[in-house]
Amino acid sequence: MFFTLPRMNKIVRVLNILALVLLLINIIVVFFYAPTERTMGNVQRIFYFHVGTAWVGAIAFFVALVAGIFYLRKPQVKWDTLGLSSVEIGLVFLTITTAAGSVWGRPAWNTWWLWSPRLTLITIAWLVYAAYFMLRGAVEDAEKRGRFAAIYVIISFITIIMAYVSIRVLRDIHPVVFGGTADTAQGAAEGLQEFEGGLESMRMGLTLLMSTITFTVIYLAWLFNRMRLQYLKDEVDSLKIRVVTRLQGGGT
Amino acid sequence: MSEQSVSPSLPGAPSFFTAVKAIVWKDLRIEQHTRQTLSLMVMYSLVTVVMFNFALEANLAAARDVANGLLWATILLAGTLGLHRSLALEQDNQAIDAILIAPIDRRVIYVAKVISVTLFTLLLEIILVFMFVVFFNKPFWQPAVLFILALGTIGYVAAGVVITSMAIQTRSREVLLPILLFPIVLPLILPAAIAVAEYMTGQPEMTRVTSTVSLVLAYDLLILAAGFIAYPYVVES
Prior knowledge:
The complex is a heterodimer of chains A (252) and B (237).
Chain A (H helix, E strand, L loop, with lengths): L4 H29 L12 H28 L3 H33 L7 H21 L4 H28 L15 H8 L5 H50 L5
Chain B lengths: L15 H19 L1 H20 L4 H6 L1 H25 L3 H7 L4 H31 L6 H25 L8 H25 L5 H29 L3
Helix pairs in contact in B: 1-6, 2-4, 2-6, 4-6, 4-7, 4-8, 6-7, 6-9, 7-8, 7-9, 8-9
């Protein structure tokens, strides 16, 4: 099967190298290929990391949601492992997004942090997924832990949906990049005024695409590494149990 | 897995709504006899309001400005008491096992618990709104505000029943409840509080009210659907 260890070792190795190469290329692209934004200057380059990681965060939580649904349909350890790994990585990427946004916000808004609806909702999403680990830690039985984690991850995805919808409905200082209405589009102009047309904006668009692809590959590499680690951990646990039973004379 | 939603078409099994009514009725009867849940929630809210006042150093102007947020915070805090009591009651004496053995769909339990806890919380809110009008002299007593409160409560309780049912089955029990529940319901409380704040100004801006209320409605529908589908897995034994 896809999830067996030897097969995984190969995938992990390929993805690791691919992710590293892409990351190096991406850094070069962001700093040397992408044009300098007219009003904000070099600070705008953070935007490529900010959007790329935010995208991966959403993908990671969506993968966790799907894993949760599959787990409830058929409780298999692999779905639980996939959900756990994805939430963990999603949380890391969400933190990177927030940190990068904060660094951008300092020169752009003249403050590190604002309690605007979008920033508030992202903080809430962060808390929701951080609490996921609290829930897991509080359940000892593996079957129950997987079941509760799956239910929780399904319900918490509503936070992500609400964060996505709310910022398109409520007034916010944060620019909307994808699917903004005419009302909110003025915010987008602030961050990406040159997306309107022309060669420079095309280069910005390509850089953004490159960033998104890079971070997606990094996510995949990380995900497979994390899952592999979990399998090794589970295997060590079961080996320990076998050794203990043998020492106790149980014999297997 | 297949037997977890017992078919309601068993001979002698009650229909979905009869079963829901029976459980809601049972909860109301218990409350009628003990009067514990509501009095607990009201007392807890009173303590919270007094405590917040203390934090504001009895500055009436400041207190009036934050009255709206304070109302929602108090509802959230007191709501966990209602949720916990209503669901932990079933865990005591293994009453939940009797309900689980009954030839009813397990989603019945979810719907019934959402209804009964919502009723308790709505009663609390009526008392709270009255108190807030008296203490903070703000125009909370309006049909529109009560309507928004009711909508917010449905979503809050719908999420709360699932989370509480899980939390009381864990090692840390109720300690875990606020940590899990509050972040999950904040995306609901945020637009709901903005909508109520519009009415506090005296001249609500209708576009803002409709957009925020539609967010509240969207959350309600999403969480009710998710809870309805997921609940049988929560109580699986």
